[in-house]
Amino acid sequence: MTISQESYHERLRTLSEASVHIHFDAFTDIDWDNPEFAIDPKDPRWVLPAADPLGGHPWYQAQPLEVRTKIGLWRYANIVKVGMQFENVLIRGVMDYLFSLPNQNPEFRYLTHEATEECHHTQMFQEFVNRAGADVPGGRRSFRVVSRFLPLAGSLIPESFFTGVLAGEEPIDHLQKAILRGGENIHPLMRRLMQIHVAEEARHISFAHEFLRVKVPGYGRFRRGALSVAFPVIMRVLGDVIVVPDRKTAEKIGVPHWVIKDIFWKSPDGEKMLRDLFSDVRMLAEDIGLMNRASRKVWRALRIDGRPSRFRGEPAPHAA
């Protein structure tokens, strides 16, 4: 389903107003010095919940409590670090896109709100890493190198840039919602970070969907064809950057390589989770005409094909 320019601008106004009335500050909305939020590396609430790919694996669940706690804190810290790095790239790319926008374009106001919110997220994430005392690298080295150049896509190929935005935001949003829905006893500081992130990312994901819905149908045949093939590649590559831990780093804290391979994405559960992560964007690709004979082969080759969501945010068990 495509949308008109008028409807798009109306939705931008709605998103902008929502950002004014519901927003969070990294240092006023989180009481970092609250004793309940103190980070004790031996606190069993750092044990990963079953909704986390590593937390649900039999190898992890068979480890002694102190090992699961140590790995859990490291896992949370590394996901938060890579989230900070990804949002840093997003902010720079958004600023690049905004630089040459014409006057009166409502995208400027909304995206500036989004960049402001993402700045607070980077502060929030880095503060957690600092307090956790975990010297985690975040994304793999190749991503950290390429991230120097990715923001240029904001103005040069904005459709690919905002596809990349979804590729980073959708998987982590999916996992955080699954953890929060699971109701397990996770550390209250991590729960608070997730609640804030999920609340604001809902707007950011919504914008990226709307941006592609209004822009892509107006592109020429070649540009749409190129994006249709690039779309699943961007999803898989950046999705892996966000979700899959670096092998060498994982081995340093005692997670064997075979466990990482099994979880991401060799086991039946891993294969299902991989497909689940992208059910919403498969729906988007169908709606804006990016599913064709060639692109479907790419989705299948990357093992992220499957039934699209019936609605955005459909719970994973029904979206496989």
From TrEMBL:
InterPro entries noted in UniProt: AurF/CmlI (IPR025859), Ferritin-like_SF (IPR009078), RNR-like (IPR012348)
GO molecular function: oxidoreductase activity
Pfam families reported in the protein's UniProt record: AurF (PF11583)
Matches recorded under Gene3D superfamilies: Ribonucleotide Reductase, subunit A
Domain of life: Bacteria
Protein name: Diiron oxygenase
